[in-house]
Automatic annotation (TrEMBL):
Taxonomic lineage from the root: Eukaryota, Metazoa, Chordata, Craniata, Vertebrata
GO molecular function term, any single one: phosphoacetylglucosamine mutase activity
Keywords: Acetylation, Carbohydrate metabolism, Isomerase, Magnesium, Metal-binding, Phosphoprotein
Alpha-D-phosphohexomutase C-terminal domain boundaries: 456-527
Cofactor note: Binds 1 Mg(2+) ion per subunit.
Presence of keyword NADP: no
Active site, UniProt feature: S65 (phosphoserine intermediate)
Organism per entry: Oreochromis aureus (Israeli tilapia)
Ligand binding (Mg(2+)): S65, D277, D279, D281
UniProt gene name: PGM3
Protein name: Phosphoacetylglucosamine mutase
Cofactor (UniProt): Mg(2+)
One GO BP annotation of this record: hemopoiesis
Annotated residues for binding of substrate: E371, A372, N373, R499, P500, S501, G502, T503, R508
Amino acid sequence: MAQFQEVLKQSALHPKPAGLVLQYGTSGFRTNAKQLDHIMFRMGLLATLRSKKTKATIGVMVTASHNPEEDNGVKLIDPMGEMVTQDWEEHATQLANADQEDVLTVLKNIIEKEAINMSQEANVFVGKDTRSSSASLSQAVLDGVSALGGHSKDYGLVTTPQLHYMVCCQNTQGKYGEATVEGYYTKFCQAFIQLTKNTSNRTDDQKHLCLDGANGIGALKVREMESHLKKELQISLNNDGSKGRLNHQCGADYVKVQQKPPTGIKINPGERCCSFDGDADRIVYYYTDSEGTFHLLDGDKMATLISTFLKELLTQAGLDLKIAVVQTAYANGSSTHYLENTMKVLVRCTKTGVKHLHHVAQEFDVGVYFEANGHGTVLFSKAAEEKIQQLAEDTNVNDKRKKAALLLRNTINVINQTVGDAISDMLLIEAILAIKGMTIQQWDTIYTDLPNRQLKVKVADRRVIDTTDAERRAVTPAGLQEAIDNLVKKYRQARSFVRPSGTEDVVRVYAEADTQESADALAHEVSLAVY
Ligand code: NG1
Ligand code: ZN
């Protein structure tokens, strides 16, 4: 067929470096940008097939999130704006690793296995972050789409969650919003303005937020969005990309892992600050107190604030909807304890990686999910949305129930349900703090984090470690878990686990205990047991 001839011809222009083997990992392919041209072309091909198979628009995002500037990566987005399904991750890995002369064979195998009708139309949305390599790499994706006769729309510079939103809007015929960047700002900012409109006691001080844009795409997009916020949120933007390097000593990952503010930003005591990561799908909050001590409010603190707010509104609205919080093993033990024992909220733990959290959150009427690193969102079931909508429109309910229903409706609209989104999460948190009249210090005192430490250990082959129980226990190598158990017993309120990273060639060690010294010592001892 002519289209396969075109694939062959174009594929030769995007050759694979000999011997290179890459895996579709926790969130797509990610490595040094110089090794990715053929991967991008082939993901353009694969997205076209996925579009034919699902008879829907598929997204391809070119980004390496919080990795350094010289890296890049790519992830595929399924029709409802969710991460691509796991079976297709395997197709992606096979196609990415096929030798040059085998590309057509692998492609045809996928077509056969998935029974794809090649005369079906295909549509692919493409987006990219601000890395200097992203322009040519996203062009390689577009080349892949056109080689198989697919249609593409190049959104250019967008955040990862914006592209997820576009794909969802397109495939739901605009029911989720308009599939444009302008439509995105309109939807989320209008909901934010509605939510904050009756918080008249809010001072200018409370409307002010200090933001670290990680020198990435999030900074650019916040600038674009600002006028839609009508001064209801006044953002002073640092690390806007004009001077510093992407993710270099700044951004959500740096702040979370280093447990300190971005370098070079002047923060006044008590000032509310937040950091985005390089593609704006993660956010963490923080402040320094009058003694100069740094306080981090991470994904767990956000999940707690959001779920508390939603639970209170559901009670006020008299709606019997099942709410749960989904976390990973990295969630601070104090957050889980507070949610289960004080808030009486159901907590579920899944493997690391947002796709796992997203799927579990879908099992509930209201599923709040967050990784400790600040990636998360809230999912509302269709039935929950309908009940909230009905109540908001009902003329026979008392004022209290009605008010709660209206707040819930606007809360749904301020949330990007397709994926964790730094911009949408920021608007949600800002709205909750405004409605509750709460300062960042008050939010911080809801519970106190257990001191914790994360370490990375380089080993010959990290895959010798196999885990179970949502990665909280090691099954192999023999004796490792027993050694960890014995170390944990030496400390108070202690917990520790190890797992191979899905995005880096390291084993990650996590430990928490009653003091920072104990957490550090335990993490160190466990990392020695890993060798
Ligand atoms: P790995 O490298 O598998 O630990 C990291 C993060 C995940 C997730 C992915 C994708 C930690 C401990 N792990 O995964 O939460 O965000 O990257 O970016 O933060
Ligand atoms: Zn990211």
